[in-house]
Amino acid sequence: MKKGLILILMIIILYSCKEDGVYTPKPRMFPRVDFPEREYDKFDFEACHFTFQKPTYAKIKTGISFFGEKAKDPCWFDLEIEQLNTSIHFSYTKIEGKNTLEKLVTDAFKIAEEHNAKADYREEAIIENKNAVRGLMFNLDGPVASPINFFLTDTTQHFVRASLYFNSVVDPDSTKIVLDFVSEDIDKILSTFAWIDD
Q1: In CATH, what is the architecture of 45-195?
Q2: Where are the domains of the chain?
Q3: How far apart are the C-alpha atoms of 168 and 182, rounded to whole Å?
Q4: Strand order, beta sheet including 194-195
Q5: Residue-wise over 130-160: b if at least 16 C-beta within 10 A, else e?
Q6: pTM score
Q7: Helix, strand, or coil here: 146?
Q8: pLDDT digits 0-9 by tens, 96-144
Q9: Strands (E), 25-180
């Protein structure tokens, strides 16, 4: 009789501990991103000595200061993609006088190094397109404000430096899909970039 009572008590205890189901936490969600339809048109800004195919949804923003410093050349501008809360900052420098190619390349490496402080990883890639444009791209992984930096030059007259910026706090998990989308636009800019003869 005692064995039967103990068995019944064990069954009651086991059933009382049973859960209706296993709790699974909901995955973290990030805001939905509506990507624009990918189309390009010609970047043709008369202050600049170059052209390329730019996204139609990117606005050219000029006459702005950078870190409190007035633009050193009229060909300093942002390609602003409001829908994705990003911008690509371009600065142009003529290779002459104190602005030697060596100095400009060194400065580009210094700027990439500043962003590298927060990066988990940095990759460098050589840029060379069919229009005799050469340069270097810095891809940075991690919580950095500018995950893509690059410079382009003809090595004798023209030097362009550009950086992609997120206009918000950077969380690599939530910005990755935007970064992947804008990276394709940057690839298009680089492949179609060409110098304009003076």
Answers
A1: 3-Layer(aba) Sandwich (3.40)
A2: 45-195
A3: 15
A4: 40-43, 50-55, 194-195
A5: eeebebbbbbbeeebbbbbbbbbbbeeebbb
A6: 0.79
A7: coil
A8: 999 999 999 999 998 888 766 666 778 899 999 999 999 999 988 877 7
A9: 40-43, 50-55, 59-62, 77-81, 86-94, 121-128, 134-141, 148-153, 158-166
Residue 195 binned pLDDT confidence (cut-offs 50, 70, 90): very high
Residue bearing tokens 């390349």: 105
Q: Which amino acid is at 27?
A: P
CA dihedral 133, 156, 87, 33 (to 10 degrees): 10
Contact 105, 134 (CB under 8 A): no
In terms of DSSP bridges, do strands 77-81 and 86-94 run parallel, antiparallel, or are they unpaired?
antiparallel
Helix then strand then coil, in percent of the chain rounded to 5, is: 30, 35, 40
Is residue 123 within 8 Å of residue 139, measured between CB atoms? Answer: yes
Give the position of tokens 């988990």.
120
Tokens found for residue 191? 């492949």
